[in-house]
Amino acid sequence: MFDWIAACRPALAAWALITASLPALAQQPMYEIHNASDQPVAFATMDPARGTWRSQQLQPNERRNLMSASGATEGRIRIGTEGRGYVLYEVRAGQKYAVVWSDRKGVWDLSSRGPMAQPGVTLNTPPSSHRGGMQQAVGYGSPQHPQPSASWTLHNRSNERIEFQTFDPARGTWKNQMSYPHQTTPYRLSPGVGSGKIRVGTANRGYVEYDVEAGGSYSIVWNRHSGTWDVRTHRDG
């Protein structure tokens, strides 16, 4: 006599395995990304378990739920701006985020919109000359807690007008500056950036380049030993 119960046991075991996995799939961590603009935007996401960046793209005003295949509740997202590098943020499961154009920074940025149960966001349109793209890194932070901007100060301790250049990582390019005799000038860094660079040239001698830190005070002086303009940490007196 044929044993139907014995014959069905493999199929029943397979079905039990599938149904047992359904709750885990339903609970897979995810977060929402909304392209809150009228332009297609490219970005990249990272699942810590995967360890590599994955290219993504959203059409204008498109919303998408992104899931973590590893079950991790935190990940990363980076968004590029042509010629301006990219911003890098942490994202958390169960939260809503929006890709927006920041007029203040001049870059594509990420904004937190709270738990996924909350309503959507309004459109913010960037200039047509700016398009998304992956470039060099320019910043790192959390969209839930915007970081304030800081500054450093430069004092021209000479009787001459001096030309030099400053570098803010968020800007990604050197900017021409000028300091008049005995002038003291603060230079503001982009929000969340804690350091930058300065370089000062001397005719026929090239230039010197130094790191500058937020809150630091520096001086341009003539270095008689090297015969060049130099930058030193400024100390009163």
Explain briefly what this protein structure is.
The chain has a 5-stranded mixed sheet, with no helix packed on it. Strands 4-1-7-8 form a 4-stranded mixed sheet, with no helix packed on it. A 4-stranded mixed sheet has the order 13-10-16-17, with no helix packed on it. The chain has one helix spanning 4-26, and strands spanning 30-35, 41-46, 53-58, 63-67, 74-81, 85-92, 95-102, 107-115, 137-141, 151-156, 162-167, 174-179, 184-188, 195-202, 206-213, 217-223, 228-233. By secondary structure, it is mainly beta.
Strand order in the sheet with the most strands: 3-2-5-6-9
List the quaternary state of the chains.
Answer: single chain
Query: For the terminal residues, how far apart are their CA atoms?
Result: 106 Å
Largest sheet: 5 strands, mixed
Count of strand segments: 17
The dominant shape is: elongated
The parts where pLDDT drops under 50 for at least 5 residues are 19-26, 118-123, 129-142
**Rg calculated over all Cα atoms:** 27 Å
Strand content: over 45%
What structural class is derived from the secondary structure elements? mainly beta
Q: Mean pLDDT, as a whole number?
A: 77
In N-to-C order, the SSE pattern is HEEEEEEEEEEEEEEEEE
Q: Helical segment tally?
A: 1
Helix content: under 10%
